[in-house]
TrEMBL record:
It comes from the Bacteria. It comes from Candidatus Brocadia sinica JPN1. InterPro entries: DUF5615 (IPR041049). This is DUF5615 domain-containing protein. Residues 6-112 form the DUF5615 domain.
Length: 120
């Protein structure tokens, strides 16, 4: 797998997902380990500065990107009904295997039914 991708996991991302990415060899920082009180814009700026793809369950990042027209290294937004962590891991692994090259510089929406890649 392309371990060149680096991730920043938002406070609302489950630790199991963070642990899974570490196990797969990815460089990932989990916000609760750094500062769980950061606001969305601060988290976004860290991801930008460190060229990390942001993992989140928070739709507000779409607002930051598209309304404020800010450039991002990439964002993966989980839209899983019931917030099933195992389902999220399964979908993320699938995307990392089959679309690794499309994650960077995209707003990726992961849902059970489909995965959307919106260029930024």
């Amino acid at each position: 797998m392309g371990t060149y991708l680096k991730f920043l996991a938002d406070v609302n991302i489950e630790k199991l997902i963070v642990d899974e990415l570490k196990t797969l060899g990815y460089d990932i920082i989990w916000i609760p380990d750094e500062n769980p009180y950061l606001d969305d814009m601060s988290i976004f700026k860290i991801a930008q500065k460190e060229n990390r793809i942001l993992l989140t369950n928070d739709k507000d990042f779409g607002e930051i990107i598209f309304r404020q027209k800010l450039i991002s290294s990439g964002i993966v937004l989980f839209r899983i009904k019931g917030q099933d962590t195992r389902e999220k891991i399964k979908l993320l692994r699938k995307v990392l295997i089959s679309h690794n090259d499309r994650i960077s510089k995209h707003f990726v929406v992961l849902a059970k039914e489909k995965v959307r890649f919106i260029p930024m």
